[in-house]
Amino acid sequence: MAYRKYKLVLTLRVIILFFALTILAFTITYLDFQTNLQLSLAILAPFLIILYYSFRSLYKFIFRRFYEMDDFFESVKYRDFSRWFNEKSGSEDIKELRKGFNEVNKTIHEINKEKEAQHLYLKKILELINTGIIAYNIESGKVLWINDAFKKTLSVPSLKNVQFIEKRNPKLYNTVFTKNHNIEDSITVTIENEKTKLLIASSIFQIKEESYKLIVLQNIESTLTQNETEAWKKLLSVMTHEIMNSIAPISSLAETLQTKVQQSISDPNEHQIDMNDLDTGIESIKKRSEGLLKFAKTYRSLNKITKLNLSNILVIELFENIKTLMFPSLENKNIDLHFEIENPNLEIEMDTYLIEQVLINLILNAVEASKEVKHPKITLSAQKNINGQAIIKIRDNGKGIPNEIIENIFVPFFSTKKTGSGIGLSLCKQIMLLHKSKIQVKSAENKGTIVSLIFYTA
């Protein structure tokens, strides 16, 4: 809008000047200076005066705007954006021009305030994070910026020049500052006579003609120690969980056998002990104890290629072992344990001790799920499907598994139990994978759960 007004006024002034020059030219042509010089000068004088003031006015009109612009650019040159141009004095076009200057200054001032606020915000964040950051001039060593985490990590005081570290600890200076770490790398440095492991990365950037280096480092010594401690805690929790799962049925069976022996000793006539039952029970305790030792050894290297002790096992024998182990403890809890098998001659190639561990885990899960059911029932069944695969199913009539968590039940350390380790089902899956087989779960809330062990190498 200011430019349009300026253009219009300038055009009018040029037109007026043009007409003044034209009239002057005609006047000079028709005047007779030789005959009557005084009269000719008297007639010409007013036109010359008008022409003079027209030129003078046009000159001032044009250059007054240039003066204002030069003044504005001078303030920009020295970054003086706080200056305010007077919008109330001067001609209309000058007022409009000054108003535009003020708008520009105001906008730049607001942008600078926002940038300053962002800079302070970013600086505060970088000061609070636990990652050490430093930026310094490569040539002079002068520190551009450093946060407390960096000083704490390298155990240095307020740092103004990195050459201080070169004098204090040349080896540390060479490792951290001299070498380039364009790719994230781990280094070991000695700080106050103690070796510390650091994760480090560096980058070079330029500001104007100066080259700077940015170094980012993180102390991972404490993190590694913490992770190692957590891993050991989880391992101990898992081992305790699995050992307790195996010891519980062994203890229950041993207690039952002990009761029968004591009754037989106190009253041999009334409570005659069945030596076959006693032998079977002791044999079950022996086998499960051996299985527990084998499990501990296998779990220790479960994430590696583990050699399984495979053999063709009759499923009916497997079920008999499980019945002997689990029946006493389930009977005390009034839980019915049933076994169903279509073909008594059904054999599966497996590591008996590990598969027993899987079945114990799954039965104990079924017991947990059936706590609030009036007539809890757990059924183990075995059959072959149309593809020739042997399938062992563990079915319960418990509370079932909610749909929103069923996909996570095989995730290590995922558990909905307050005292659970979250490793039972994960371990079952790993054991089945070692057998090159798989485990599947189907569940409906308030109806029950079916866990299927599908053996491809039947």
The CATH H-level superfamily of the largest domain is: Histidine kinase-like ATPase, C-terminal domain
Please give the radius of gyration in angstroms: 47 Å
Let me know the number of strands. 12
| Main sheet strand line-up | 2-1-5-4-3
Q: Which architecture of the largest domain would the CATH scheme give at its second level?
A: 2-Layer Sandwich
Give a quick account of the main beta sheet: strands, pairing sense, barrel closure.
Answer: 5 strands, antiparallel
Number of structural domains: 3
Uncertain spans:
301-305
Number of helices: 11
**Percent range for helical residues?**
40-55%
What proportion strand?
A: 15-25%
- End-to-end separation in angstroms reads 90 Å
Quickly give the structural class. alpha+beta
Shape: elongated
What is the H/E order? HHHEEHHHEEEHHEHEEHEEHEE
What name is given to the CATH topology of the largest domain?
Answer: Heat Shock Protein 90
Keywords:
EC 2.7.13.3; alpha+beta; five-stranded antiparallel sheet; elongated; about 55% helix; Beta-Lactamase; 3 domains; five-stranded mixed sheet; 11 helices; about 450 residues; Heat Shock Protein 90
Descriptive overview:
There is one protein chain. The protein is α+β, with helices and mostly antiparallel strands. 54% of the residues lie in helices and 19% in strands. It folds into three domains: 110 residues, no CATH class; 90 residues, 2-Layer Sandwich (Beta-Lactamase); 230 residues, 2-Layer Sandwich (Heat Shock Protein 90), CATH 3.30.565.10. Strands 2-1-5-4-3 form a five-stranded antiparallel beta sheet. A five-stranded mixed beta sheet has the order 7-9-10-12-11, covered by helices on one side. Helix 7 runs antiparallel to helix 8, helix 7 packs across helix 9 and helix 10 packs antiparallel against helix 11. It is elongated and about 170 Å long. It starts with a helix and ends with a strand. About 1% of the residues have low confidence.
